[in-house]
């Protein structure tokens, strides 16, 4: 339960806030002086501070300043009957969440409190996720707490101690190159070169020249001797990315590299010895490629000494929040938006999406959201249509392999609740306006809000305090 500290020297205001906040489901702590409020703040455990600016001895500004020092993530709402522009500006500069002047309407203060606590909850969750990332859930630039990824981390650490060839498989965008780099970084070769080549990104002749080098005059344009990438990577690690696209001629020559650790440059006659650790990566099923006659069986068995498979993101959804936090931090720094957060609703949408493009697709979505966000919080409006709308992130086969039943009524209820909340947010808490947004009568809308236990943010009450 969230705890709200109310600091006010008027007993009537304390009683008002206590009754209202308890009804809203919050725990309340009261203070009559700034010294008493500061003492409670220093003992921690406070999620929101509401303080009157005019109190005996020290003012509410002292409460605000000390709260910012103890925990800047705790929002502080300033309340006073004597507002001036200077005090409002000063309070906001120090870090106040909002500044409200008496008399205020009950629905207004409720809405401000709800939004302040929502921000507090979002920041607390982000901090928890960041702590998880920094603990046992990352290896190099790879992140994951799922059993799939923890098992992969353990294998990487074991494999790194050897020089055996590794075959990394997984769908496009899962992070195969990151796994190769993690193996290199954890190995004794970490101080030597890590080089890579995409076997499907260039013509056959150029690929051979890049891999093995060439002698002067070996082909048109070969105006001098050139070392190949395998030679440059001596004593280090070399990644054959998209090895399933390698032409047969390259497969034959690479087979010799794996067997003898030697090769000839294009047009050369001298054998060149190398001590290089080979890692191959592919999103293809190489056994199917062998059956189709496009991949050499002997080359496959030489590559497949230690197979590592990276599961698609949709099979490890518990990793999505950790990856999201990493990308928000990265692109927040790049775009001058350090400290960005995202709403819980946004995270839910991200967790439900199918991510056919895997981590790479998720990274692109977060970068876009950070750039498009108007403030310091990513909301559903900053996400692409296919994530926040479309099929709502529902799987094409919601039953999966288990064949278990689907709680359709529960899913529809959750969707209805979600749109009621969105309508309230869009209408700034005005239920009559929100009802129009979802084409419902005010009476029906109010009934649904009460039925689902959605926070009462109605602005139809003229009561002032």
Proportion in β-strands: 5-15%
> What share of residues is helical?
40-55%
Task: Characterize the overall form.
Answer: elongated
Number of helices: 19
Question: Would you tell me which CATH topology of the largest domain applies?
Answer: Rossmann fold
CATH level 4 superfamily of the largest domain: P-loop containing nucleotide triphosphate hydrolases
Please write the CATH class name of the largest domain.
Alpha Beta
The tally of domains stands at 4
**Radius of gyration, Cα only, in angstroms?**
30 Å
Unreliably modeled segments: 390-396, 457-464
Termini separation? 26 Å
Instruction: Using the 3D structure, state the CATH architecture of the largest domain.
Output: 3-Layer(aba) Sandwich
Strand order of the largest sheet: 2-1-3-4-5
Fold topology:
Blueprint: E1 3-7, H1 11-23, E2 27-31, H2 34-42, E3 48-52, H3 60-70, E4 76-80, H4 85-94, E5 98-101, H5 106-134, E6 138-139, E7 142-143, H6 147-160, E8 166-169, H7 176-185, E9 194-198, H8 204-212, E10 213-214, E11 226-227, H9 229-232, E12 237-241, H10 248-260, E13 262-264, E14 271-273, E15 277-282, H11 286-291, H12 297-303, E16 306-309, H13 320-334, E17 341-342, H14 344-352, H15 358-372, E18 377-378, H16 385-388, H17 408-426, H18 431-437, H19 442-451
Parallel strand pairs: 1-2, 1-3, 3-4, 4-5, 8-15, 8-16, 9-12, 12-15, 17-18
Antiparallel strand pairs: 6-7, 10-11, 13-14
